[in-house]
Amino acid sequence: MGYAQATNDIHAPIEAVWDALNDINQTPAWVEGLERAEVITPPPYGVGTIYTDYNRLGPFLQVTNWQITRFEPYAQQVHESQSRVLPSAMTLTLTAIPEGARLDMAVDYRFLPRFGMMGRLLEKWVMNRLLAQVLKQNQVNLNTYLRHTG
User: Fold this and answer.
1) Is the CB of residue 108 less than 8 Å from the CB of residue 6?
2) How much is the pTM?
3) Comparing C-alpha atoms, which of 4, 7, 6, 12 is closest to residue 144?
4) How far is Cα 150 from Cα 146, in angstroms, rounded to an integer?
5) Do residues 136 and 8 make contact, with C-beta atoms less than 8 angstroms apart?
6) How far apart (Å, rounded) are the C-alpha atoms in residues 84 and 77?
7) How far is CA 150 from CA 1, 100, 132, 147, in A?
8) Strands (E), the chain
9) How far apart are CA 142 and CA 42, in angstroms?
10) How far apart are CA 38 and CA 18, in angstroms?
11) Do 91 and 72 form a contact (C-beta atoms < 8 A)?
């Protein structure tokens, strides 16, 4: 199984960071490659919420449904996808710090599970590093986004 993680300090109040993480429709403003995102289920937002991401991977548009399976306000949430290309569990953990909030993003995933050993080799040699870089860039983008909107 592949794994990628990034941690960064976000210079905004923890409430603002939490609100941005929960505003799925606005995530394309700070998530790399995300063209559009939309919540499918009615409010309230939390465990059971389902949303769809429209993410550009090179020339391909990847449409992925996610479900929130854990939701602890201002602390942690887990989003899970059963995508055929990249089934994943993404854990977002927030911790209050004097400068704002520390955001840890961790993704457990399988890359191309139908390809067995080839998929696992790609996880180890390519995807772990690539996804960690994307997570780190998303955190930098979120910091910038909150600075300009907050």
Assistant:
1) no
2) 0.90
3) 12
4) 5
5) yes
6) 22
7) 37, 13, 26, 6
8) 2-10, 34-39, 50-57, 60-72, 76-81, 88-97, 100-109
9) 25
10) 18
11) no
Q: Considering all CA atoms of the chain, what is the largest pairwise distance in Å, rounded to the nearest integer? A: 46
Tens of pLDDT along the chain (150 residues)? 889 999 999 999 999 999 999 999 999 999 999 999 999 999 999 999 999 999 987 788 889 999 999 999 999 999 999 988 778 999 999 999 999 999 999 998 877 667 666 667 766 776 778 889 999 999 999 999 999 996
Cα separation of 31 and 36, whole Å? 10
Burial class (CB in 10 A: 0-12, 13-18, 19+), 88: buried
Q: Which helix (H) or strand (E) holds 138?
A: helix 128-149
The full set of domains in the chain, from first to last, is 2-149 (3.30.530.20)
Determine if the peptide bond prior to 44 is cis (ω within 30°).
yes
* Distance between CA atoms of residues 22 and 57, nearest Å: 23
